[in-house]
Amino acid sequence: MNIHRAFIIGGAALYNETLGLPFSSSETGLDRILLTRILSPDFKECDRYFQDICKEMSEEWTRASHATLQDWVGFEVPEGEQEAKGIKYEFQMWVRSTLLF
Fold it and tell me: pTM, whole model, 2 decimals?
């Protein structure tokens, strides 16, 4: 079976383990992160978080443009800050920097 795309959905331990796997090529490794970034509120009562790729992985990952996100997913994605039930968030896509060269 030829798998075009696979998605890892959830669990802090699963995310960290997957991000820790060695990357060999865009065909065999994790090359994109589709992220719903919560902008506010802070949710200080949470005890698990996805690592902050803006700070912790900036050399390895680059934020893609909104147009690139939409092209990759193949449908319209709301751009910029969104809000629902008092939660502000934004849809983002991060690409492994080695794919940009």
Answer: 0.78
